C-alpha cells in the first residue's frame, strides 16, 4: 500500500444502511490511535471493538492504524478521515440534542474557525474575550491558515463554522455568505538606523530588499494581499527573507537595510522597540478588509447567528487601524 492517500470512488450509501455506532467508534479510534482505549471510551468490550475495526477496514479498504516503532500511527487515509469525522459527529450531536434552542450561558458547543495568523494576532484576543464574557462554557477550535486557503473552500465551510480572511475570488461563490468584521491598512517597517527618510517613495520599495510573509518561490502572485501595491512598482521587489508568518516579519528588519510592508494592527506589538521605525506606505495601497465567511446552510442556525453577532461586537470594540 503506497503512502499517498487513495481517492476511493464509491456508490452513494443509503443513510438507513449505515451503522452510526461505527461512526462513534471511528472517532474515538482516530483520537486514541489504540483499539483498547477506543473501546473504553465508547464503552464496549475488546472483541466488539476489534470487530468494529475489522468492519471499518473492510469498508474503507485501508488499515487505518499502522504499527510503527511499538505504537500505532494513522494511515494517510485515516488522517484525512480524522479531519472529517470530528465536525460530522459534532453536527450529529447538535442535531439530536434534547435541549431546545441555544442558550449561550449554558451551552458547551464548540465552534471551529479558520483564519490566517494575522487575523489571529489582530483580532483573536478580542474575539476570545467577547465569547468568554457571553458564554464561558463555549469551546473554540481555531485552525490557523499557514500558507494558503483550502483548495475546496465550499467543502471546508461545510464542515467548519466560519472562515475569517480577506476576500478572494473563490469566496464569492453561490452558497457562501459573508460579514465584514474589521479594516486595517498597510504600513512599512524599517530599522531605526536605516538612512531612508521619514516619507517613503515607491522608489524606496523598489531598491530596498524586502522581508515578505507567505511568499511563493518564483514570484509574488497578483491575487496576494499586496498585489495592488506590487502592480504600482516598476520592478519586482528584491526579496531577501521569506517567512511563513506575518507576525515573524519584523524579526528580520532591525540592524539591516531591509523593509517590510505589514498590517498596522500588528505594529502594536512593536511598541517600545527603539530599533525599528514605522512609516506610512507609499503608493496608496487599498485597505485591508477582513470578512467572516460561512456556508449559507448555517444562516438560520440559532447558535451560528449568535456567533456572528459576537464576532461583530468584538470587531467593533477592537482597536482601530
UniProtKB/TrEMBL annotation:
Keyword field: DNA-binding, Transcription, Transcription regulation
Single Gene Ontology MF annotation: DNA binding
Stored InterPro entries: LysR-type_TF, LysR_HTH_N, LysR_subst-bd, WH-like_DNA-bd_sf, WH_DNA-bd_sf, YidZ_PBP2
Pfam families with a match to the protein in the record: HTH_1, LysR_substrate
Residue span, HTH lysR-type domain: 18-75
Family, per entry: Belongs to the LysR transcriptional regulatory family.
Name of the protein: LysR family transcriptional regulator
